[in-house]
Write a structure and sequence with these properties.
The complex is a heterotrimer.
Chain A (H helix, E strand, L loop, with lengths): L1 H16 L1 H4 L2 H26 L8 H16 L5 H23 L4 H19 L11 E2 L6 H24 L1 H11 L1 H6 L4 H27 L1 E2 L1 H4 L3 H13 L6 H17 L3 H18 L4 H11 L2 H10 L2
Antiparallel strand pairs in A: 1-2
Helix pairs in contact in A: 3-7, 3-10, 3-12, 3-13, 4-5, 4-6, 4-10, 5-10, 7-8, 7-10, 8-10, 12-13, 13-14
Chain B lengths: L1 H30 L6 H19 L3 H22 L9 H23 L14 E4 L2 E4 H23 L1 H11 L1 H6 L4 H26 L7 H15 L6 H20 L4 H15 L10
Antiparallel strand pairs in B: 1-2
Chain C lengths: L3 E2 L3 E14 L2 E12 L3 E5 L6 H9 L6 E6 L2 E2 L5 H7 L1 E3 L12 H11 L7 H15 L14 H13 L5 E5 L7 H16 L3 E5 L3 H7 L2 E6 L2 E6 L1 H6 L1 H12 L1
Parallel strand pairs in C: 4-9, 4-10, 7-8, 8-9
Antiparallel strand pairs in C: 1-2, 2-3, 2-5, 5-6, 10-11
Classes of the chains: A mainly alpha, B mainly alpha, C alpha/beta.
């Protein structure tokens, strides 16, 4: 059964890899966005799903990755690869620096602090000359949707393999223990502070790499799009809808919800966003444990599954 | 003189900010729910006032009770029919659903009211008086007074009224609310309804001193957090302190660093308070 | 650097004038005692006497505001709880704290992975965890979710989690509260077997019969102060202890 899942996963990756050579350019563009969202959802999964720290500000890492890469390429004329490394390094350094004070906060306070941090960094960057202030930066134009697509796919696979490793390693076990009960984890010998910061840095790494790819792919960035707050909600809803704390859940959630958004967006934008709001509400209400859990139990429980899900969390 | 004017502006802004945050702080403190749709409620209250004024010619201050009543009903129904089903779910589920409500309300507003800028401008808008070289706009002063009044009324309600005490008991634990003869589901809906009513009232005042678009919600929610955090959740009067701190910080931040740094100042302040003293400036030490 | 007590018994742990204040309240006040290797020390006292605070100070959840704690002669000051666990200080919680979403086995595996022993492979850690579950009598419930366990089984799980660290000093905070007479006898036997395995144990307990049976020596706390120390017989006869402890509980 388990082996079957991984064979299927490998086949899915192979199928995804040939998309640029078989499907239309529009599908490739959609694919890039979908894959980058899957990376963001996996990044959130590490800190939110495994470690239990519901960050509402991972967009700050995405934004720093975006700007790190763009500034390196535009202002210092470095290569894209070097830009990616610099963007990731900036985001990871920021995660470590800010993680020490911020990861002492719990629950709502942690969520809100991360949210505010993202906004604060956006506000600072929109005042920096080197980052192009409010106008943003324009990167060198490159025609290479296939390259960006394969790069995004590779990053998504890497992120998922990292989460798979987490699910089976001592480090990941420690993170789960922190999520379940931090004070008990600490007296059992788990270096909670170091582990939390490492998880935060890992989440930052993947989010920043996704940001770097996005920057070069779109060739234009500005603070509003790089630090878009709704990005946080999107990555969280994808991870939660798919199954927070699972290996494949965030990817499945990202694929499903990207698909829904794309279909809805073919109508008028206002209506599409409205429907996305309704989808969020319905998804959280009826599948609070994610689609993986639902898929596993739905056949046996039938529609009673949804009613039970609601009953379980009702006041 | 400039400093005095900026001080006045900051204080007037702070009073408005206090009432902007009041509903969010109440719902957060009592129900432990952070309502990400709070700003959207304010936006709705603003539009309601706008249409009562342009459609029926109702003075904004006179429409305040009507707007609050309508928003109370909306809030009550949202908690009773939707959020009550999520109370025992993980914390971020509630955040996600209230964000979903925010999205729905924002884009409903965009479809129904269009994205055009609106301002509520009664005849007396723009008139002001001068004291010792400091200009005070009447609307802002009146909004400031009403804001303080609403905050005071809420504090009184929580202290004195039977339901108010039941709400405060709910903040302690659900069993205590039952002891006050108020079923928890009702206490939750009541509290959320009052939070929405206060947001609606804030919307009326906000619409008179600032421009309305369907998108003002999210920044207002963010500011409300900042104010609730700075003031602490223990006491409704904390939001006055939080509102004044934020109002003054933004006013002087704009003066000294330039207006583009205004948001950075308020958010930086928020992060600082969260890290140094998460229970707020006035709050009890944890 | 292991200290010798008059050349006779090895002292594993020592508290020297340990004090902990919370604002104006002194929860633990100038407490000094030595805990010998292989000894079961009983810690009794009325509610609010500072017993759990003392355990929190030893395990590192709290830092003393005065005095010092020595483990094998080595000061524990400023050492994070997880490092104390690596040294071999394990504890249970009075309000049991299992990892609710994990299986019973995984709860204990966490201890095996991060305890005193060098890093283990996952499979090895699981084996070790299964061993400790058998030891406390939870072997058959290994695959159940931890939050599905009943009260007595939760107490056993707390014990197994702490044992999986392979502690040298085990701090037990009311592991018998809420158990019936038969279950208490079982846990007493269990604790004796743990000691026979070479572990030094500090037990907080309200069940006098059990603590009399278990302890080599008793410590009595009242208002944060150590008011008596000695064998169970002598301490429980001490009028001051009867007055402070038993008198107050009945009154």
């Amino acid at each position: 059964m388990r082996a079957l899942v991984w064979v299927l996963a490998a086949a899915a990756v192979a199928a995804l890899a040939i998309v640029p050579f078989t499907l239309s350019p529009v599908m490739v563009q959609f694919g890039i966005s979908m894959l980058l969202f899957a990376v963001l959802a996996q990044g959130w999964n590490i800190i939110g799903g495994f470690t239990g720290y519901a960050s509402f500000g991972n967009s700050v890492f995405f934004g720093l990755g975006t700007y790190g890469t763009a500034v390196a390429m535009v202002q210092f004329h470095l290569s894209f690869a070097l830009g990616l490394v610099i963007g990731a390094a900036v985001a990871v350094a920021f995660a470590v620096l800010i993680g020490l004070p911020v990861l002492r906060l719990r629950g709502h306070y942690f969520a809100i602090t991360t949210l505010a941090l993202s906004e604060a960094v956006a506000a600072i960057i929109s005042n920096l000359d080197i980052a192009g202030r409010n106008q943003g930066l324009i990167l060198p134009l490159i025609r290479g949707d296939t390259m960006f697509y394969e790069l995004s796919l590779g990053l998504m696979v890497l992120a998922t393999l990292t989460v798979l490793w987490l699910a089976r390693s001592r480090f990941g076990f420690g993170l789960i223990a922190i999520r379940e009960r931090e004070d008990a984890a600490e007296v059992m010998g788990i270096p909670t502070t170091r582990y939390k910061v490492m998880a935060f840095a890992l989440a930052a790494l993947f989010s920043a790499l996704a940001g770097g790819i996005q920057a070069y792919y779109l060739t234009f960035i500005d603070p509003a799009s790089a630090f878009d707050l709704s990005l946080n909600v999107r990555m969280i809803i994808m991870a939660v809808f798919g199954g927070a704390g699972t290996v494949l859940g965030p990817v499945i959630g990202a694929f499903l919800l990207s698909g829904v958004s794309e279909v809805l967006a073919s109508y008028i934008t206002g209506v599409a966003s409205l429907f996305f709001g309704l989808v969020i509400i319905a998804a959280v209400l009826f599948t609070p444990k994610g689609v993986i859990d639902a898929a596993r139990r739905l056949p046996r429980r039938g529609l009673a599954y949804f009613l039970d899900a609601v009953r379980e969390t009702r006041l | 003189m400039l400093v005095l004017q900026v001080l006045t502006n900051g204080i007037l802004l702070g009073g408005l900010y206090a009432v902007v945050a009041l509903g969010l702080a109440l719902v957060w403190g009592v129900l432990d729910i952070i309502n990400l749709a709070h700003g959207a409620f304010i936006m709705l209250g603003g539009y309601l006032t706008y249409y009562l004024f342009t459609g029926l010619g109702l003075d904004p201050f006179a429409s305040l009770p009507l707007v609050m009543l309508a928003m109370f009903v909306l809030g009550y129904l949202i908690q009773w029919g939707l959020l009550n089903f999520l109370v025992r779910a993980p914390m971020f589920n509630m955040l996600l659903v209230t964000f979903g409500i925010d999205v729905v309300l924002t884009y409903l507003a965009q479809i129904m009211f269009s994205a055009d800028l609106r301002t509520i401008r009664p005849a007396y808008a723009g008139s002001n008086f001068t004291v010792g070289g400091v200009t005070v706009p009447w609307t802002n002063l009146l909004a400031f007074v009403v804001a303080l009044l609403l905050t005071g009324l809420l504090a009184l309600f929580l202290q004195r009224q039977r339901w108010g005490r039941a709400i405060r008991a709910t903040a302690q634990n659900l069993g205590a609310a039952r002891l006050h003869g108020v079923p928890p589901r009702f206490a939750y809906a009541l509290t959320f309804g009052i939070g929405a009513a206060l947001a609606g009232g804030a919307g009326t005042l906000y619409g008179m001193v600032a421009q309305l678009t369907p998108y003002v919600g999210v920044p207002l929610t963010a500011k409300s957090f900042a104010i609730a955090i700075i003031g602490g959740l223990d006491n409704p009067l904390g939001v006055i302190v939080g509102g004044l701190v934020l109002g003054l910080a933004e006013a002087f931040g704009s003066l000294w660093l330039g207006p583009t740094y205004r948001d950075a100042v308020s958010l930086g302040l928020l992060v600082l308070v969260l890290i140094v003293r998460p229970t707020g400036i006035l709050g009890r030490a944890s | 650097m292991s200290g010798r007590d008059a050349g006779e018994r090895t002292v594993l742990f020592e508290a020297r004038h340990v004090t902990r204040r919370f604002g104006g309240l002194v929860a633990v006040s100038d407490v000094s005692y030595r805990h010998n290797q292989g000894e079961i020390l009983g810690l009794i006292g009325p509610n609010g006497a500072g017993k759990t605070t003392l355990i929190n100070l030893i395990s590192g959840t709290l830092e003393p505001t005065g005095g010092e704690l020595l483990f094998e002669g080595r000061p524990l000051k400023g050492m994070a709880p997880y490092r104390r666990a690596h040294l071999g200080i394990g504890r249970t919680f009075q309000l049991m704290k299992p990892f609710p979403g994990l299986s019973v086995l995984d709860n204990v595996t966490a201890g095996a992975l991060f305890g005193r022993q060098p890093e283990l492979a996952m499979a090895k850690a699981r084996d070790l965890a299964a061993h400790w579950l058998e030891f406390v009598g939870l072997g058959e419930k290994a695959s159940q979710p931890a939050d599905a366990l009943g009260g007595p089984d939760r107490k056993r799980l707390e014990l197994a989690k702490a044992l999986a660290l392979q502690p040298r000093l085990l701090l037990l905070d009311e592991v018998m509260a809420g158990l019936n007479a038969v279950e208490i006898d079982e846990v007493v036997a269990l604790i004796q077997r743990i000691r026979d395995g070479g572990t030094t144990i500090l037990v907080i307990e309200h069940v006098v019969k059990a603590i009399r049976k278990l302890s080599d020596r008793l410590l009595v706390l009242q208002y944060g102060q150590l008011i008596a120390e000695g064998t169970a017989e002598s301490v429980l006869e001490d009028p001051a202890v009867i007055e402070a402890y038993l008198g107050r509980r009945r009154g």
